[in-house]
Backbone:
């Protein structure tokens, strides 16, 4: 069939086939390679920035390790100020003991104690205890100062002071709500 075609027609068919091969080659070989090169060229600056950041981190490795050790030591120091975290009742008992010892050392008389329900405060569990003490104003101030300097983290959440006898306003009755903190069992794991 091609033999019946003139030389000019064969030349046109050959040129058409050649043009089709060039177009197909352009679309399916050259164009994908160019797109891949353009994409790679676009990624080069981002990858250079990432590489520079990794080099900075590697250069700061010693500083970061030192910073991590300092933060870990600070966490350990602050964790030591938390109450024994066996369970909220155990922590409440420990807090009651601390409050009673400090009240006795301050020269006040403990009239009553009451454990309040624990309260979640983000990552920690607050264990509140309410104690009622009686004494002179200087004894109550001494008690508050001792609570502030306690070996465990103890905060005064509420303080109510009343005069026990209006005829003799020397003795006061103070109801103090103190709180200690523990890490809940789920946060320690």
Residues:
């Amino acid at each position: 069939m091609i033999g019946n075609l003139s030389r000019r027609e064969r030349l046109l068919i050959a040129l058409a086939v050649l043009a089709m091969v060039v177009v197909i080659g352009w679309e399916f070989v050259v164009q994908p390679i160019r797109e891949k090169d353009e994409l790679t060229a676009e990624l080069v600056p981002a990858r250079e920035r990432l590489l520079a950041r990794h080099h900075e981190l590697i250069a700061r490795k010693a500083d970061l390790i030192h910073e991590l050790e300092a933060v870990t030591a600070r966490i350990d120091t602050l964790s030591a100020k938390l109450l024994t975290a066996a369970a909220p009742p155990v922590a409440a008992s420990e807090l009651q003991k601390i409050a009673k010892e400090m009240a006795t050392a301050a020269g006040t008389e403990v009239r009553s104690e009451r454990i309040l329900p624990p309260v979640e405060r983000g990552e920690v569990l607050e264990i509140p205890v309410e104690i009622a003490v009686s004494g002179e104003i200087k004894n109550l101030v001494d008690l508050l100062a001792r609570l502030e300097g306690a070996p465990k983290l103890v905060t005064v959440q509420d303080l109510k002071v009343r005069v026990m006898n209006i005829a003799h306003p020397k003795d006061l009755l103070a109801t103090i709500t103190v709180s200690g903190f523990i890490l809940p069992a789920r946060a320690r794991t």
Q: What stands out?
A: The chain has five helices and five strands.
